[in-house]
Amino acid sequence: MQKYNSSFLIVLILLTFSLVFAGCKKDDDATVATKALLTTGTWKGVSYRVYSTAGGKTLIDSTESLSNTTKTFSENGTVVTTITDGEGNKTSSTGAWTLSNDKKLTIISLTNPSYYTIKDISSSSLVLSNSGSYTKDGVTSTAEQTATYSK
Hints:
Layout: H1 2-38, E1 43-54, E2 57-65, E3 69-73, E4 78-84, E5 90-99, E6 104-109, E7 112-121, E8 125-136, E9 139-150
Antiparallel strand pairs: 1-2, 1-3, 1-9, 3-4, 4-5, 5-6, 6-7, 7-8, 8-9
């Protein structure tokens, strides 16, 4: 009986480890796939939306064009953002980017980090979002910014 319990325990431990490692593999595969999509080509800005509320009332709901902006993510961890003004002059800035397993994207330009969640990514569409909330004097305020890019 003791030998049966030991064998069962060993099999249970091996099964547990294989499930844990298989579960981690899915996250790693998803992150690798997201990185591959992110670093393929240049993303052209489509729109930028700001939505803000306070106490359940909408304060801001504004959408602007991002057609003058591009982002190029490189596999080496750099990102180049280029903005073209109304006269066709281009200004580029280079920063660094990282991606975590839960689709949290960090972009560091100069010394200021920006934190985004990748809400959607495909070979032709990228949607980045960041949001936050705070409460002051019993009133909760929220804000969300969403940037949409295409190829």
